[in-house]
């Protein structure tokens, strides 16, 4: 089970840190990803991280502003979001990928999903 938190309302240029806490003892065996979905748009990858945390991916739209990380001892994956823009406004979802040490870039690559947390960036 995945529980995302940390969303909220922030002004342009502000920062937020999203957290996704996982239950269970096998968190370290799941590659993790953050996705987002804005109204009327498809769900898109934001960032992904391998099981060890040694390999990460960030979409071009967030590269240099967002950072994904994980703490396997705490069963948690994070998304640090800096220099937020209005176009970052969306519901953000964390997802877990089973049986594969590497992250995927498509929603269908993932097996489990959190409930989503709203991020709203005002201009």
Low-pLDDT ranges:
none
Q: What's the main sheet like?
A: 7 strands, mixed
The span between the termini is 34 Å
Helix and strand element order: EEEEEEEEEEE
The shape, in one word, is globular
- Percent of residues in helices comes to under 10%
Number of helices: 0
Q: Based on DSSP secondary structure assignment, what is the total number of beta strands?
A: 11
Structural class, by secondary structure, is: mainly beta
Radius of gyration over C-alpha positions, nearest whole angstrom: 13 Å
Mean pLDDT: 96
Beta content: over 45%
Features:
mainly beta, single chain, four-stranded antiparallel β-sheet, 48% strand, 11 strands
Q: What is the compact description of this entry?
A:
The chain is mostly beta strands and 123 residues long. It contains no helices and 11 strands. Strands 2, 4, 5, 6, 9, 10 and 11 form a 7-stranded mixed β-sheet that branches.
